[in-house]
Amino acid sequence: MVWTGGAWFTGKQLEGRIADMVQQANAQLRSSAPESGLELSYQDYQRGLFSSHLQLVVKPIAGQANGWLAAGQSVVLDEVVDHGPFPLASLKAFNLAPAMASVHTTLVKNDASQALFEIAKGDTPFTVDTRIAYSGDSQSAIVLNALDYAKGDEKVTFSGGQFQLDADRDGKKHQPEGPGRQRADRCAQRI
Known about the structure:
Elements: H1 2-32, E1 38-47, E2 51-60, E3 75-83, H2 88-92, E4 101-107, H3 114-119, E5 126-132, E6 138-144, E7 147-151, E8 154-158, E9 161-167, E10 174-177, H4 181-190
Antiparallel strand pairs: 1-2, 2-3, 3-4, 4-5, 5-6, 6-9, 7-8, 9-10
């Protein structure tokens, strides 16, 4: 009963903070890469008792030029959030340390991402599993899947890789590691 109440409370806290987190990400994007002409938003937020689901959307800022996406295009990330204090994804990995959330991220197949899915042979090109502490610090295990593309004289082959990214709550201190598999595996076990 306590776990259920804790999961509900954590989900409620997340729901209240998601707009602020997106605003903070946009402010950071504007200050660190103003030339990108991109902004982040979220859609389809559905809060459940033990988990929530939402989509993060990266799209062009109206009226600004950008070389990444055409007008009307967007990159969509599917987010499955297991609520703390004991996120189900963490429990499945036998990690009993309390955490605010565990997030599983995948790329959604759409017109902007179609080519990536094609060179990944129909599979998602990457997954990200993130553990978010109650302090706001996070640990992410990033898996880049193998890619293979050949058309005419063009050829791209990538065997894949695993990386870890640790970040503080303010997004100011980052500690990326990789492509060493051992460190990413340890992170995946903690998540």
